[in-house]
Structure prediction request, 653 residues.
Amino acid sequence: MTKTHKDVEVLMNEQRVFSPPKEMADKSNIKAWMDKHHIKSYDELLKKAEDVEWYWGEVAKELEWFKPWEKTLDASKAPFYKWYTGGKMNIVHNAVDRHMKTWHKNKVAFIWEGETGEVKKLTYRDLYIQVNKFANALKSLGVKKGDRVSIYLPMLLELPIAMLACAKIGAVHSVVFSGFSAKALRDRMNDCGSKVLVTADGFYRRGSVVSLKHNADEALKDAPGVESVVVVKSVGNQVPMTTERDIYWHDMVEGESMHCKTEEMDPEDPLFILYTSGTTGSPKGIVHVHGGYAVGTYSTTRNVFDMKEEDIYWCSADAGWITGHSYVVYGPLINGTTSFMYEGAPSYPHPDRWWELIEKHGVTIFYTAPTAIRAHMRLGDEWPKKRDMSCLRLLGSVGEPINPEAWVWYHELIGKKTCPIMDTWWQTETGMHMISPVPMTVLKPGTATKPLPGIVADIFSEEGESLTDKGGLLVIKKPWPSMLRTLYKNPDRYTETYWSKYKGIYLAGDIARKDKEGYYWVQGRADDVLNVSGHRIGTAEVESALVSHAAVAEAAAIGIPHEVKGEAIRTYVVLRKTHTPTAELKDELRKWVGIEIGPIARPDEIWFVEDLPKTRSGKIMRRVIKAKAKGEPVGDLSTLANPEAVEGLDHLK
Ligand code: WT7
Prediction:
């Protein structure tokens, strides 16, 4: 039986803790690293690694560099930090090319399974050849170092191949999650000035075909910079191909050489741009670079997941998000890992599809999100119980705080009470795990435990004093190699968003508490950013989508607690006088937001109201709306221009 809330409370009061098996800790990669550096305890390592230049200098030596770096960290233009300056490298040399020199060339890099049950396996040598062929094909389209390529693909093997091919020739990839709408794709392609789009005809989702090319065509109507469109033939649905612009992937790579020179990059050259939500309506183009990002994803994959040669690793995230970039593609490949990749939906065609896949492919390390765990919990304990998952040895969680109920369920039903759970806190911006256990950390359900070696974090009050056992703002006090370098074409917004509240200190945007043992308990976002099923959605994005509809005069979006999704989106909408509130209109507005942003941003609830509480300067007081929704005191209303609107929030039309 699943634990009830009460049981969990009892467990928590007993200070339930779980230690990874001693044998695992003794044989862990992090232990081996400590031994090599004559470090006796993990705490000693954490202390010593506060010298971030020492730690990240040592770690970087484990990768291959065309030319060694001269300076580990250059802070002269802070917050535009530079790592490993003077060196030359390419992340793809480390993720793919160098494996050709060892037996890794024969090792499976990816085991892929489609929703229909089709299985494909790709060795590192196969991957090498496919990356080279596609890299040559991109060159023949005129793609050069520094050019941007947008990738709008479902979880097909072509997704990592396309990313690696871009990086190999020095082009910058910008992956757009295949669940995003045509408009979202268009805006991202235009913002980063993509020359090429890589997409697919379609993909399977819960048995039906989603025509991705159709969305892409819609987006391309208004993306004049895109010269060529490469289309992966995946499901074989009929799609229109525009002559001179569209070309099939398989036609392109045919006849291309299986060799392609890897561009020698400056470690600070951009690797990719990935868009994420912020507090304004326009998503931020997070820029990551070759050098530091390679070092960070390599070492965290190795130490947190304890990646060993014989492991079969599965990260269930889509490569369209940062989790996929760092922990489906780059981190695992640099470590020479065998990864499993799945195209389909979690519980299709049967509720135990995931558990079946773990059993079938012998997955040893599994990394997923609390929202997925909660969704599986609801389907019932009988499903995981039907499967033999004794192959698993370590579990991971990411995306939001994992609630103790879900932790206990994950631990007992999936991890059979033996697998430690690595609750990893990090962000699109940080590029890699920042606060996380390693397989020797004593775990407590609900906390990501301590900052990793080489990460110096703290909890600050508004005034910037360090807090213990009190909620405050989560900050990172020293730069780290895989940090974002800037926001694309918007360095001012970069400085303003992350580095302006406290001087020289990175503001993560989360509220957290650090307990007396130095464990971090992340509580949620401090800003107007929602976390829906582990995905970041800005309230401003939802609001601007709504007000772009002819019926809507004003809108406010807030997050309300949701059992499975963590947070659900509730919107308060003021209609134009020309429109009347109807159930049909609600439906239409929900769909509208889906078209504007993507299905993940569709509001769960739409409330029609007469008015929204605003300041005298016209700013919507989301704080007041939130308090009201939660039934909490609304606080000081003296700055409101229309205090009567607060009462009206309950009077629905
Ligand atoms: C935000 C970052 C990083 C990959 C997935 C999301 C929340 C993420 C945890 C965790 C508590 C977490 C934070 C963070 N978050 N992981 N283990 N415990 N909160 O990436 O879309 O950039 O969102 O997700 O609020 O700031 P993202």
Remarks:
- The radius of gyration is 24 Å.
- Residues 1-5 have pLDDT under 50 and may be disordered.
- The chain has three domains: 14-93+270-457, 128-253, 533-647.
